[in-house]
Amino acid sequence: MTKFEKAKAEIVSEKTLADQWTRLSSFDLDYTDSRGEKHRLKREVYHRTPAACILLYDPKRETVVLVRQFRLPAQLVGEPAWMIEVPAGLLDGDDPEAAIRREAMEETGFRVRDVRFLFKAMTSPGAITEIIHFFAAVIDTSDRVADGGGLAEEHEDIEVLEVRLAEAMAMIESGDIYDAKTIMLLQWATLNVATLR
Ligand SMILES: Nc1nc2c(ncn2[C@@H]2O[C@H](COP(=O)(O)OP(=O)(O)O[C@H]3O[C@H](CO)[C@@H](O)[C@H](O)[C@@H]3O)[C@@H](O)[C@H]2O)c(=O)[nH]1
Ligand SMILES: [Mg+2]
Description:
InterPro entries: NDP_pyrophosphatase, NUDIX_hydrolase-like_dom_sf, NUDIX_hydrolase_dom. This is GDP-mannose pyrophosphatase. It is a single chain. The protein is an alpha+beta fold. The protein has two domains: 8-46; 51-195, Nucleoside Triphosphate Pyrophosphohydrolase (Alpha-Beta Complex). It has helices spanning 72-76, 96-108, 165-174, 180-192, and strands spanning 8-19, 23-32, 38-46, 51-58, 63-70, 82-85, 88-90, 116-122, 131-138, 159-164. Helix 3 crosses helix 4 (180-192). The termini are far apart.
């Protein structure tokens, strides 16, 4: 029995505040709290569509494949803007596994053979609808069949890095890697490295 047994949330109205690349809306909701008291709340939600990301691990070299690209929100908060991340992308209507195979190829040039679904996570559940599906795959040098680098027509400008897992973990401590999904996958890899072969 949890404290929230009696709690419920009913949407009263939704107003679209912006509707360009991603919709932003403001909701009024009637929230009945855990004591049974009803309150009218306002919540703004940014309607991000689902995404996927992947750990590409080469057990022979003990390396991971990472990508580096410009991220405007990082620049806006004064952090290093050419961020180092695991390959990731929006599903764009595909199922998560098909989408992550496509993104791995576009961004890194690696053809992924067996992919393993790990878990999904909401990245910022207080404000953003984004759900990311996390995957892992074992690769070796012969799986690199293209240069990667992203789609020219989308002006993607992506650098592909191959880094030893231990070094990538040290880059979290040093602040050189500070993207949440990347930290999660590197920590998962460190805990589960024996299963990655
Ligand atoms: N026109 C336009 N294009 C945009 C905008 N924002 C992004 N794009 C373009 O949309 C494409 C998105 O590339 P993906 O590889 O599909 O996604 P991602 O940016 O890597 O996103 C992943 O990482 C993000 C940051 O961690 C996550 O937020 C996202 O869910 C996903 O995991 C890129 O070509 C980017 O330039 C925008 O506001 N306007
Ligand atoms: Mg991407």
